[in-house]
Amino acid sequence: MYNLLLTGLMIDSVLIIIAVLMQPSKQDDAMSALSGGSPDLFQQQKARGFEAFMQRVTVVLGVIFFVLALALAYLSSH
After folding, report:
1. Is 13 exposed, middle or buried (0-12, 13-18, 19+ CB in 10 A)?
2. Burial of 23 (0-12, 13-18, 19+ CB in 10 A)
3. How far apart are the C-alpha atoms of 48 and 52, rounded to whole Å?
4. Which residue in 3, 34, 58, 61 has a CA-CA distance of 20 to 30 Å to 13?
5. Is-contact 8 68, C-beta < 8 A?
6. What are the pLDDT digits (tens) for 47-69?
7. Domain extents for the chain?
């Protein structure tokens, strides 16, 4: 059981990395990256289409990662 969860955790880790790298960039230019924001900070629109899908996938993979990590910690302590 431990090895199965560990394998699942490693696969989930790779999938999280891929999902984060596939998300579109939100930075317009280098100046907004250095200043920490852009002038239209409060005019952000809700994510749609591919961007919204990738955000949901990343959240789901993060929850799975957290659950698997807790399960592995529980199994290793008993």
Report:
1. middle
2. middle
3. 5
4. 34
5. yes
6. 788 888 999 999 999 999 999 99
7. 1-22+49-77
